[in-house]
Specification:
Strand content: 15-25%
Structural class: alpha/beta
Number of domains: 2
Number of helices: 8
Mean pLDDT: 93
Helix content: 25-40%
Low-confidence stretches: none
CATH architecture of the largest domain: 3-Layer(aba) Sandwich
Distance between the termini: 43 Å
Number of strands: 10
Order of helices and strands: EHEHEHEHEHEHEHEEHE
Length: 223
């Protein structure tokens, strides 16, 4: 069995009792970063052992982990924060497990925090249908990425790091109608959480109205 466990994006109180039970039951917890997950497990006095699973994990380890689950072990898959598989290398693990075992292995989702839905819930933007774009490309494909948001009729949501968010706002503002709404979420659920509302023509100033640090989730009104 594999539990796919959503973990807090900041506030540890958001970890559900069901998630705690699943992590406690797991014979092994697959982590994006074992150091990050160990802090979470220690906080809740969970003794389950951990191992790393991330974008650089080789095929040999991947196959070995899949084989152990197929043979009957119970594992839990987590990301550093939020829901595994959403803009996260855990998606590849689930894909391989389904490919190898099909319906022979039970995969149990343990729902919980996600930065995407957290921001959308307070954005005031249409969210009956939206597009999640993930992280913008670092180099090749950036212009195409922004053009896609500029032409999108639904609300677009994307992630960005503090190191590139100023550049992202400048590039996006050059292509998107200045009167379209934007919502900038920073450090959601954490001590210094902030949510800024405005229009694209003011996006850069909105961003710079507070210290630029922490992880960002940004929503842009559709065309």
């Amino acid at each position: 069995m594999l539990y796919v466990v959503a973990t807090p994006i900041g506030n540890l109180s958001d970890l559900s009792p069901r998630a705690i039970a699943a992590l406690s039951e797991a014979q092994l917890v697959l982590c994006e970063d074992t150091r990050v997950t160990r802090k979470l497990l220690t906080h809740f006095e969970i003794k389950s052992p951990t191992t790393s699973y991330h974008e650089y994990t080789g095929p040999t380890k991947l196959r070995a982990l899949v084989a152990r689950i197929t043979a009957g072990e119970t594992m839990a898959l987590v990301s550093d924060a939020g829901t595994p598989g959403v803009s996260d290398p855990g998606a590849h693990f689930v894909t391989e497990l389904v490919r190898e075992a099909g319906g022979a292995v039970k995969i149990v989702p343990i729902p919980g925090p996600s930065a995407i839905t957290t921001l959308l819930s307070v954005s005031g933007l249409a969210a009956g249908s939206f597009v999640f774009q993930g992280f913008p490309p670092h180099k090749k494909g950036r212009t195409a990425f922004w053009k896609q948001i500029a032409e999108e009729e639904r609300t677009s949501v994307f992630y960005e790091s503090p190191h590139r968010v100023e550049k992202a706002m400048a590039e996006l503002s050059a292509l998107v109608d200045g009167d379209r709404k934007i919502v900038i979420g920073r450090e959601l659920t954490k001590m210094f959480e902030s949510i800024r509302y405005g229009k694209m023509k003011d996006a850069s100033a909105l961003l710079k109205s507070e210290p630029i640090k922490g992880e960002y989730v940004i929503a842009v009104e559709g065309k």
